[in-house]
Amino acid sequence: MKILTISCWSHKIKYYLLSSDGRTILASGIIERVGLGGSFIRQSVPGREQFYLDMDNDDHQSAMALLIATLTDPIHGVIASSAEISAVGHRVAHGGTEFQHSVKINDHVINSIRQLQHLAPLHATPNILGIEAAMTLMPAIPQVAIFDTAFHLSMPECACIYPLPYEWYENHGVRRYGFHGPSHLYLSRRAAALLGKPIDECNMITIHIDRGVSLCAIRNGLSIDTSMGMTPLEGVVMETRCGDIDAGIHAYMMGALNLSAKEMELVLNNRSGIFGITGRHLARHHFVQAALDGDPRCKLALEVETHRLRKYIGAYLAIIGPLDAIVFTAGTGATESPVREMVLNGLLDCFGIQIDRESNRAVRAEHEEVEITGEESMIRTFVIPTNEELVIAEDVAAILSGACSDHRHYDYSFANSDFVPSASMG
User: What b/e readout covers 115-149, taking b as 16+ CB neighbours within 10 angstroms?
Assistant: First the structure.
């Protein structure tokens, strides 16, 4: 039997079909521009040429139907029918404080996720649409929700309560929740294995860098703080999100440009960050290369980005205490040695952090785990490609078998020292 993992965004569905243990990728794909016109599906199967098909999808249900049809296609698919799928794991952005671990989806779970939509409107709505579409098209197949926020519910109150009217927290759920939980979970378990220490004895900073960026402060294996907040907008500079800014800017610019709250939210989420500074949509590697080549705006954006990352590392060192490791991952973390050098440059004297430049610049393979610690460093540094899909698949398998409790106590395969990573799927 197989496990299907699904991540839904407003206009995109990303999916993987995995073996029952989650270790083997049978197929992976993405459907782009859902509801926008000009949509298409792109599917990869190991050992085959990539399959591409233009097909308009007006909504998530038609896109999900295309996904299933492609997986079961006699020529391009990998299964005879959807009956070969034992369960579907859905990545869900927001579980509030109710969901502290992954759960099998029922009416109560769907209703609870729907009630949390206001906490992550850009993410929760497509999450629900994806779940409902999958349940309609595959009604006999168990569906499981894996929450981005669950990993961070170990944060103490001093880290998650905002200095705002307390009744906002009590009545409206305004607090820090954090995101990228499956990624930070995977990184922390892999780093502990590479350190040769039990996870509950490990202190580290994990850094998930992709279109969205977040850091996590981990003490004794538990999240005690994270850079994203009530929504994924807070934190460091991202591709199109601003991250931390003066809250007074919102009211000032809404008045200056006569923007509605919805228009302002769109600017902060979709027209800010690196795009806001450069004024251009650039593929990540083109942006970094342009910065290194001296393009003024790209150079400034990269300096702002790395400055913010370095500042967060310093802050997290102050709250964690003695640190075992710093872990970089995902898009930038796995492929961009100049960014890592800029982030950690000059931290030897004040924090005892140094990277080996040759090891750092030698990182190439997407699935390669590499230690880049410098000779004089007191803190070890790793590049570990993330694998959120494996976390989702193992949670799904554990729930189906009745073995799942929560991430704090479950024995994930990737937490073992003999685990061999496959190509990154995160």
Answer: ebbebbbbbbbbbbbbbbbbbebbeebbbbbbbbb
- Could you say which architecture CATH assigns to the domain 196-386? 2-Layer Sandwich (3.30)
| Interior/surface letters 319-358, b for 16+ CB within 10 angstroms, e for the rest | ebeebbbbbbbbbbbbbbbbbbebbbeebbeebebbbbee
Residue 78's nearest CA partner among 69, 91, 65 is 69
Active site annotation includes 21 = no
So where are the chain's domains?
2-147+389-415, 196-386
* Mean pLDDT for back-to-back runs of 10 residues, the chain (426 residues): 92 94 90 95 96 95 97 97 96 94 95 88 89 97 97 98 97 95 97 96 95 95 97 94 96 98 93 96 89 97 97 97 92 75 94 95 80 96 94 93 79 91 58
Helix (H, G, I), strand (E, B) or coil at 216: strand
Which of 148, 210, 324, 395 is an active site residue?
148
Q: Which CATH class is domain 2-147+389-415?
A: alpha beta
- Interstrand relation of 380-383 and 370-371 (parallel, antiparallel or unpaired): antiparallel
Question: What whole-number distance in Å separates Cα of residue 333 and Cα of residue 382?
Answer: 10
Q: Do domains 2-147+389-415 and 196-386 have the same CATH topology?
A: yes
pLDDT value of position 426: 43
Alpha helices in 10-137 (DSSP H): 60-71, 107-115, 121-137
